[in-house]
Amino acid sequence: MTKTVIVGANHAGVAAANTILDNAPDQEVVMIDSNTNLSYLGCGTALWVGRQIDSYEGLFYTKKEDFENKGAKIFMETSVDHIDFIKKTVHCQTKDGQEFTETYDKLVLATGSTPISPKIPGNDLQNIQFLKRFQDGQAVDHILGDDTTKNVAVIGAGYIGVEIAEAAKRRGKNVLLFDAVDRALPNYYDTWFTDDMDKNLADNGIELHFGELVQEYKGTDKVEAIVTTKGEYKADLVINAIGFLPNAKLGHDHLELFKNGAYLVDRHQQTSDPDVYAVGDCATVYSNALQATTYIALATNAIRSGLVAGYNIAGIPTESEGVQGSNGISIFGLNMVSTGLSVEAAEKQGLEVAYTDFEDLQRPDFMKENAKVKIRIVYEVSSRRIVGAQLSSREDIAGTIHMFSLAIAEQFTIDKLKLLDIFFLPHFNQPYNYITMAALQAK
Predict the structure, then answer these.
(1) Residues 6 or more apart whose Cβ sits within 8 Å of residue 68
(2) Is 252 part of the annotated catalytic residue set?
(3) Residue 126 confidence (pLDDT)
(4) How do residues 153-195 score in pLDDT, each as one tens digit?
(5) Of 47, 211, 250, 389, which has the fewest Cβ atoms less than 10 A away?
């Protein structure tokens, strides 16, 4: 009987475990996780903290008993001290100090990522928080519930930072958003889109401090202020949302790593050790936009990578289709979605690209419910293949991005998109669809 040990039981580990258990019930599966819970949808933390949903219970989609009912052995609140890859043993310790060892035939590393923590003076003060685990969300929610918490400083204007800034503002706090770069959401969107988001944040009372690097936290026991390259600001709560690094410490001496320290995997999720798979935020992905291996930490990528590893371990040969890094955000009613590469990201990667923009109403102007839609399609100059798309609107335009994700995966050209059959009905769109119009304007 094949025995698989899975280290880490969040999205990627859960997907791998379920896939093996559902497709190879004769195999033995052991799951190990250091947390008290599993399957927490961290992307919903801001919705809960901002009281846009009633409670956090729905942010968990499975539990320990679900896997035990399928025949798995699962250890929670258990850390992995080290792994002997030659003897194929995983050395563990429970929360009460008991040590034990699990052998394996196949090993899945699903150890995720860890928040970047600035090593600056005052970083040991209370009320300096991160947002990763359920417990982090609980801590932030508790501090926001204290009436003495008036000023909230959010450091990092990526997705998590912008979302938690909105949540804190919805809780009636004075919110300051800091980033060393000059705009929000720079990793996924060009300035044509982020200018709108910056204005949206400011219009809703978020105090923006872009182009400022945090240098120090001040306070006695609790944080009371932060010092940046441009000034000093009161802060009763600091939420660090600078980003994440792959957690690859268990195998970094044995397995081949990517340039950022993530486990380097092939299209089957196998590492340089054929009996070891790596999935989720601790591993690389294959980008169809770049047509190269890269690192994109998203829950959707984690789930897909877990599925791929699970199928291969279950004896069903499966290759990853690659990813586009599709993503989206909705802040104070402004919806933005993107996939693939922005113009700025493509140029940083050395791709010569062009782009086409279009802006119009979502529906014909005689429709009572309507809003503007902005679209940018990015394509490679030499091949004319689509490598990215961005959209924004106060309408729900999220579904459109899936088509562009498929277009990138299938190396669809901008020219082929020009006369694509797109339906029309006034309830949904215009006869001259913004997708068609943007494509027709491509050089």
Answers:
(1) 74
(2) no
(3) 96
(4) 999 999 999 999 999 999 999 999 999 999 999 999 999 999 9
(5) 211
441: three-class secondary structure by DSSP: coil
The full set of domains in the chain, from first to last, is 3-114+245-313 (3.50.50.60), 117-242 (3.50.50.60), 333-440 (3.30.390.30)
Does the structure show a pLDDT above 90 at 1? no
Going from the C-alpha of 27 to that of each of 5, 66, 67, 103, 418, the distances in angstroms are 11, 17, 13, 14, 50
Return the closest-CA partner of residue 305 out of 402, 315, 295: 295
Residues 6+ apart with CB under 8 A from 288: 321, 322, 323, 324, 340, 408, 409, 411
Residue-level pLDDT at 443: 87
| Tokens linked to 413 | 């050209």
Read off the tokens for 147.
């009436």
Ranges assigned E (strand) in 181-275: 207-210, 214-219, 223-228, 232-234, 237-240, 244-246
DSSP string of 131-182?
-SSHHHHHHHHHHHTSTT--EEEEE--SHHHHHHHHHHHHTT-EEEEEESSS
Nearest 5°: CA angle at 430, between 425 and 434? 135
Element containing residue 12 per DSSP (H, E): helix 11-23
Q: Whose CA is closest to 281, among 298, 259, 261? A: 298
Q: Which residue is associated with the tokens 């799951």? A: 31
Q: How many alpha carbons lie under 13 Å from residue 131 in its C-beta half-sphere?
A: 31
Q: What pLDDT score does 390 carry?
A: 98
Q: Are 345 and 330 in contact (CB under 8 A)?
A: no
Ramachandran region of residue 172, left (φ > 0), alpha (ψ -120 to 50) or beta?
left
Alpha-carbon distances of 372 from 12, 204, 375, 392, 408, rounded to whole Å: 37, 19, 10, 8, 25
pLDDT at 99 over 90: yes
The model's pTM: 0.94
In this model, does residue 118 exceed pLDDT 90? no
- Give the chain's count of helices (H) and strands (E): 11, 25
The catalytically annotated residue of 43, 252, 254, 268 is: 43
Amino acid letter at 96?
A: D
Instruction: Report how far apart, in Å, the C-alpha atoms of 253 and of each of 36, 204, 263, 306, 393 are.
Output: 28, 48, 11, 23, 47
